[in-house]
Design goal:
Shape: globular
Helix content: 55-70%
Radius of gyration: 23 Å
Number of helices: 16
Largest sheet: none
Number of strands: 0
Order of helices and strands: HHHHHHHHHHHHHHHH
Strand content: under 5%
Length: 425
Amino acid sequence: MSDAEIGSNKRIPKLEGVRGVLAVGVLVFHVAWQSGVTNFMDQPGNGIWGYLADGLTVMLPPFFVLSGLFLYRPFARAVIEGKRGPAVGEFLFRRGLRILPAYWLVVGVVLLGINLDGINSAWDVIRPVLALHFFIPADQPVIALAHTWTVPTELTFYLALPLLAWLAAKFAGTAVDAARRAGRTMIPAAILLVIGLAWVTYTNLPTFTGPYELWFWPFYYVSAFACGMGIAALSAKAEVTGIVPGIFRAAGRHPNLFWLGALAVYLVNIPKPFGVPGSGTVGGMTQELIGHCLILVFSVLFILPLTVPEARSRLMDVTLGNAPLRFLGRISYGIYLWHIPFQNYFVQNGNMFGKTAVPDAMLRGSAGFWELVTFTLIGSVVAATLSYYLLEQPLVRAYGRRAKRRREAAATVPAEPQQQVPAGT
């Protein structure tokens, strides 16, 4: 995902660093869950630390907010300016190139090293390769791949984004006022937000009997993309029209207050006063819906001040702009992809250890937190670094060079001379 600054091609160190924080936060949450530190259904965790670690569920949705923000923004700006948006084919190819090769590498390693005993047909390989394993989950071996539900979620958003931009253009219609067109670019985001909240409610109804995979379909977190799209539309409006939304002005004046608000939301989200999410009860449904909304609020409060150019915060610069976190941010996608396989390697789960792989829940509490987090973090960083510099970046750069040559070639093609009309005709 691009870190381009609003209104320029400059990279924002804070937005590189925030990805590093989010990736490590997700890793720590999963390690804490696997080691038995967090609370899980009727299993109590490790006291206050269990609750604090359980609260790290807030770390994943901001990734989707960032995707919605940076990917929808050029489309929204084109609508506001009344211009043609990015080329759809090139957009989709670049996004696929950015996430699929690294994902395919992980799928290959995990299927061969962990799930080989569970593969009964070519279809068991084709489904994860095509990112269909959560859409068609029956008998699919997904040990150490369960977290990759985010890949089809991202891919679905990429495919839907040109359609959403087309809808925004249709809603904008023939309005000549840029501010009015900007307001209408918010409509697709509002539609997605409603769809997301409705899906969360539906899949947590006490009468719901569908497969658990429906909790990991794109609809479940489409509301986070919607929040990012809303920020994108407001940002494009501010740049094109000069009309800065009040929430942007507030973030510019008091960025640290937004982070303080995000911390408060994180703490409020930790207790589960209404019931256990996913328990199939009215209380569980209520708690899941409230928790989902709190996570969206956390994501917006956490991300928004990092995207407002006027926001100046020494705290954010020091926390997120340092070299180690910026590096982790650059390889954050690989850290996310590799951390669950490394957890399984540590607990020796899979055919590479002469065992048939079992679900992670069956091995919960079988490893200490500090040993597991150290092994998982080091292994994931090494694997992600190799993937980034040997696979992901070379492919992206090769495509960038090819695209540049095509543009240069197109620019040097001489225009056809106009036919001269003879005088006197």
